[in-house]
Amino acid sequence: MRKLLTYILIFTFCLGCSEKNTKRKSEINATIFFGAKSKNEKFNLTFDKTDNSLNYKYVNQIDTSKTILIRKIIQSDSLLFGFEKFLKADKESYRNKKLSDLGFEFYVLENLVTDGTGPILFNSDYGLLAINNDYGPTLIFLNKEDNEFTEQILTALNE
Q1: pTM
Q2: Is residue 4 part of a domain?
Q3: Ramachandran sector of residue 3 (left: φ over 0; alpha: ψ -120 to 50; beta: rest)
Q4: Whole-Å CA distances, 157 to 91, 92, 116, 122, 141
């Protein structure tokens, strides 16, 4: 009986560990707006969940130097993007039926600057939906290209 109890405890412990630390990979399309034209490119997304953070790595399939790293601390209202900290904005979540009504939160730079990045639309289950940048590229991440939907997201970013 004691041996059986030991096996059950070990199994439960191992099962619990596997749920805390998970990894997954997928492919996602990005529409990139920079200047007058937009272009579509594919990114490889690697998601890694640890005890205290959600880590998202987006790597461009054509040019691997175009890499975006996002880290979400699980028990906080902040994102880390590059060397900057973004805080959840006091704004209603962005929702759309095309994204199963997931709520995407708006995140803005902790220390706002005129030429800074933001807002960022993010959902812990989905990852990045959009990164707005007035003086650089704006990116919209969707599972498939959809020009009309992309325009709706751009409108929400700029409201």
Answers
A1: 0.81
A2: no
A3: alpha
A4: 11, 12, 14, 12, 13
